[in-house]
């Protein structure tokens, strides 16, 4: 008995020494009493992490490479009935923005901080990262993700689909795994770590290991897995809220979808991209998505008038868009399956849903003629005429599992209606303006209405925290947390006329840059003719040049929301002021 008491005395003394130092937010300070023996000591157990009473489930949905004017939900022609249902029973945000390309957008979204600030100025890929703090592609641990925050506050956390933030050299089954989704706060992950993958033969990962895909379309697989995670959790802990990050690879290339979906649009794009733009802008005005005064920007000089094209080219290009439209409608269908599961399981009414339709504008990476089989068709290996001829011959391969499809540039501009330019162009609204839907049956009062307050992906995290009543933890896993940079949008939920609170935002992708300040915007396209980073170029690939040679433009977005009237010469002092603000931000 004497030996037992001495051992207990030593153990309790050691525990007291440890807990006295454990005031770093990870291990709670011991709240009992440590005496010499058990008889003169008082036991204590820390309270487990619990979400606030009645805290809603949280579902974030983000699509890939979808232009502002693509979906019927925001005035487009491509049918998205499930997004429409969410928007008609929630809020449509029409002045919401992304970073202009995938990894920067997703890092900003998940952390509530600007993408350079979390080291994602480019990508986590070796070829597109650099050895500087803003560009090394490694999100620091003091800038915790929404998954880490919510897990610290009693949520289960799941992610399915595209992650895109794991450094290439860490993305093997040997790890390290601290920059995989499971190392960034997700209890479970099923999807792919890179920026893009084949939809039928994906580079598939579950938790911390690669797994063999089952041959079905990836979006089908990730939806099934999401439903599985939610079903399993709800059965065991029905009162515990969940956070689900649903990020399909759709509609990033390769555009691959079953023929039953693409055939829904057979013949519907035969009138071409010029007709598409005219129809979409009219629908957007009718729905109140854009101002009545809006006019279309001029067709980009690199895009031919549809009526000027030979019949074989028109047939080819129309098929590209039929496949893309089917791909987007299919994605909407899969989101509908997920929402229907929540409804049937009785969880939807207490689920706060954010739908971001695109992590950037429509992709300009499909060349002038579209891409079907890139290895076979590389312009480096053939003339433009031979490239086009091969595409025409391979038209039946578009969208199939054996092809790696991306539509031509003309459809990218059409899908971005009513804006100029496209993905990668951080200077332009066409690269950075994407629709947002907020849906919460128990909390959204003004259902089916539009919000025009300025927003950015860094705002979704603070919006989620404010609405759920959760504070940013001072520490996560023992690491003191940095401040957030986003602005909560909750102030606008019940107040459509509220003045924007997010009034300053910078953008920068691969040299293209802009600065927004309370309705005014200054911007510069560093490489206006460099259409794509990879093998496929449209127009001239301009050699690098001095940033001092760039031409800056100035727009008053309060009066000219889609950047048609350059005011740089009219207001040179305003331009100078905004350029100085950009430099300060940089």
Textual characterization of the structure:
There is one protein chain. This protein has 586 residues and is an alpha/beta fold. It folds into 2 domains: 1-44, no CATH class; 57-585, Alkaline Phosphatase, subunit A (3-Layer(aba) Sandwich), CATH 3.40.720.10. It is built from 14 helices and 18 strands. The protein has helices at 2-21, 81-88, 102-111, 146-152, 218-236, 259-262, 272-287, 311-344, 374-377, 384-393, 409-415, 429-432, 460-468, 572-585, and strands at 57-62, 91-93, 96-97, 156-162, 188-192, 205-206, 209-210, 242-247, 351-356, 436-439, 449-451, 455-456, 475-476, 479-480, 504-509, 512-517, 520-524, 552-556. The strands form 4 sheets. A 10-stranded mixed beta sheet has the order 7-6-5-4-8-1-9-10-2-11, sandwiched between helices. It has a 4-stranded antiparallel beta sheet with strand order 15-16-17-18, with helices on one face. Strand 15 and strand 16 (512-517) form a beta hairpin. Helix 5 runs parallel beside helix 8 (311-344) and helix 7 runs parallel beside helix 11 (409-415). The longest helix has 34 residues, at 311-344. The chain starts with a helix and ends with a helix. The model is unreliable at 1-24 and 531-542 (pLDDT under 50). It comes from Mucilaginibacter celer. Keywords: Calcium, Hydrolase, Metal-binding, Signal. Residues 56-470 form the Sulfatase N-terminal domain. GO terms for molecular function: hydrolase activity; metal ion binding.
């Amino acid at each position: 008995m004497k030996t037992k008491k001495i051992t207990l005395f030593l153990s309790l003394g050691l525990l007291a020494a440890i807990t006295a130092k454990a005031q770093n937010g990870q291990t709670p300070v011991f709240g009992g009493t440590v005496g010499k023996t058990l008889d003169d000591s008082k036991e204590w157990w820390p309270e487990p992490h619990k979400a606030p009473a009645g805290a809603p489930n949280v579902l974030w949905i983000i699509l890939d490479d979808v232009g502002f004017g693509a979906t019927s939900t925001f005035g487009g022609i491509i049918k998205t009935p499930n997004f429409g249902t969410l928007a008609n029973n929630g809020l449509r945000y029409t002045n919401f923005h992304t970073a202009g390309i995938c990894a920067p957008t997703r890092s900003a979204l998940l952390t509530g901080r600007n993408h350079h600030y979390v080291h994602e100025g480019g990508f986590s890929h070796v070829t597109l990262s650099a050895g500087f703090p803003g560009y090394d592609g490694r999100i620091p641990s003091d800038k915790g993700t929404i998954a880490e925050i919510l897990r610290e506050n009693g949520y289960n956390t799941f992610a399915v689909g595209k992650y895109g933030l794991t450094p290439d050299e860490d993305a093997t089954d040997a790890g390290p795994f601290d920059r995989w989704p499971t190392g960034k706060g997700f209890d479970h992950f099923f999807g792919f770590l890179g920026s893009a993958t084949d939809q039928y033969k994906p580079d598939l990962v579950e938790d911390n290991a690669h797994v063999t895909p089952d041959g079905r379309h990836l979006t089908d697989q990730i939806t099934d897995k999401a439903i599985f995670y939610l079903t399993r959790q709800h059965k065991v802990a029905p009162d515990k809220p969940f956070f689900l990050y649903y990020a399909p690879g759709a509609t990033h290339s390769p555009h691959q979808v079953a023929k039953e979906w693409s055939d829904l649009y057979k013949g519907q794009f035969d009138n071409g991209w010029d007709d598409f733009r005219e129809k979409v802008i009219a629908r957007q005005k009718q729905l109140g998505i854009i101002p009545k005064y809006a006019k279309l920007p001029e067709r980009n000089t690199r895009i031919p008038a549809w009526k000027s094209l030979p019949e074989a080219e028109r047939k080819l290009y129309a098929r590209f868009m039929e496949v893309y439209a089917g791909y987007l409608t299919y994605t909407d269908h899969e989101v509908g399956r997920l929402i229907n599961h929540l409804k049937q399981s009785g969880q939807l009414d207490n689920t706060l849903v954010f739908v971001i339709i695109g992590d950037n504008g429509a992709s300009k990476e499909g060349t002038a003629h579209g891409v079907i089989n890139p290895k076979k068709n590389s312009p480096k290996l053939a003339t433009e005429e031979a490239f086009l001829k091969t595409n025409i011959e391979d038209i039946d391969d578009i969208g199939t599992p054996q092809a790696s499809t991306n539509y031509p540039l003309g459809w990218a501009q059409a899908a971005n209606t009513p804006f100029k330019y496209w993905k990668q162009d951080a200077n332009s609204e066409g690269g950075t303006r994407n629709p947002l839907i907020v849906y919460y049956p128990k909390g959204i009062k003004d259902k089916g209405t539009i919000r025009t307050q300025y927003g950015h992906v860094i705002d979704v995290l603070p919006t989620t925290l404010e609405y759920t009543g959760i504070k940013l933890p001072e520490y996560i896993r023992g690491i003191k947390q940095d401040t957030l940079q986003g602005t909560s949008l909750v102030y606008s939920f019940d107040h459509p006329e509220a003045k924007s609170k997010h009034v300053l935002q910078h953008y920068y992708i691969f040299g293209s840059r802009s600065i927004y300040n309370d309705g005014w915007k200054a911007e510069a396209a560093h490489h206006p003719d460099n259409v794509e980073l990879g093998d496929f170029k449209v127009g001239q690939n301009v050699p690098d040049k001095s940033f001092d040679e760039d031409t800056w433009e100035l727009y008053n977005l309060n009066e000219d929301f889609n950047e048609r009237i350059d005011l740089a010469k009219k207001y040179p002092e305003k331009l100078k002021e905004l350029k100085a603000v950009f430099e300060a931000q940089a």
